[in-house]
Amino acid sequence: MSPTMRSMEISLNAALKTADTHQICAAIDAAIHAQNNIAQLARKADLDRGTLYRAFRAEGPTLDVVISALSALGFQFVVQFDRQRPETPPNRYAKWKSRSHPELRSNSKLAAEYLTRAFETSEISQIVEAFADTLRAQENVTQLSGKTIRARPSFYRAFTAPHVPKFSTVVIFLDALGLRLAIRPLLDSKAAS
Hints:
The protein is mostly helical and 193 residues long. It folds into two domains: 3-78, no CATH class; 80-184, no CATH class. 56% of the residues lie in helices and 7% in strands. It is built from eleven helices and two strands. The protein has helices at 3-18, 21-33, 38-45, 49-54, 63-73, 103-106, 108-121, 124-137, 141-146, 152-158, 167-176, and strands spanning 75-81, 179-185. A two-stranded antiparallel sheet has the order 1-2. Helix 1 (3-18) packs antiparallel against helix 2, helix 3 (38-45) crosses helix 5 and helix 7 runs antiparallel to helix 8. The longest helix has 16 residues, at 3-18. The model is unreliable at 189-193 (pLDDT under 50).
């Protein structure tokens, strides 16, 4: 990995560690504008150049735009365990909860691994489905949403296909679970130079 790429990775991971979407978007925007040829980067990201210029400045991009931009820069997301969240009181409606991934309910490390495997596919539909599985597995989504600025229904709407969630919603949801995003170099050779 070139020193420039390593420096960019360190800068982006430092921003991601804050879980502050404004700082994260500013760091991604700086990485994009540090490239010699933004038009070529936009083609690599399969995004319009104007979208790439504006996406990280206004109200914030959707998750697919962030994934595409990072991929064009030569990185991919991983989900890291930050802290184990405390047990939540049982939900009286738990009998209607999804039983598809009960291991994601109380184990943040397993949830991080599950979501990372989804990010490795680079398929937004699989990533959104993994977030939906993780959300449905939670014992008490109302209490989880109470730790964020998002209401319970907004999490369900955000992680229902074919909807693509805002990047900020993903960051907030992961933080509430005791997880955070990080980046690593892409495993294949389509990295930017």
